[in-house]
Amino acid sequence: MAEQNALGQEASKGTLIFLCGKMGAGKSTLSRQLAEAENRVLISEDEWLAALYADEINDFDTYLKYSARLKPLLKKHVQELLCSGVSVVMDFPANTVNQRLWFRSIFTDCGAAHKLMHLNHSDALCLSQLDKRRQSHPERAMFDTEAMFWHVSGYFQPPTLDEGFYLEVIES
């Protein structure tokens, strides 16, 4: 019989780590740090979208359309990594209940462990960090605006314990 971890999954399988937090909360930065610290595979939605649809995403609705195209392919790929014992950090938003259900289907279908990290930072901090990102990454300036922050924040649903995730909350 395979050894099991504290969450009841087979210890030989990898762990899926995913994050939620408003725009500018630092999800991408933390994702990179988590991947580097433990030699995990990092899969970044922004990198995949930029590589595949560089000049095609001009607004939030188009982003949603292309993001949805990635998910079936990446789900199977991430499951294969997890089942082979590789831990994965996904830099994809887990900012709504439906988005988190997609993540649940990844780790549940293959019996892997998981961790949802919620970056619970103030709007002021997120907006300040967005301003810094616009300056350091001018190519993002048309999306990383205060207006887009408020638009996207309107959809944000913080995770609750009722959702049943192994949850770590990081407060600012």
UniProtKB/TrEMBL annotation:
Gene Ontology BP term (one): cell division
Keyword Cell cycle attributed: yes
Cited Pfam families: AAA_33
Species in which this protein is naturally found: Shewanella baltica (strain OS155 / ATCC BAA-1091)
Name of this protein: Cell division protein ZipA
Gene3D superfamilies: P-loop containing nucleotide triphosphate hydrolases (3.40.50.300)
Record keywords, A-Z: Cell cycle, Cell division
SUPFAM superfamilies noted in UniProt: P-loop containing nucleoside triphosphate hydrolases (SSF52540)
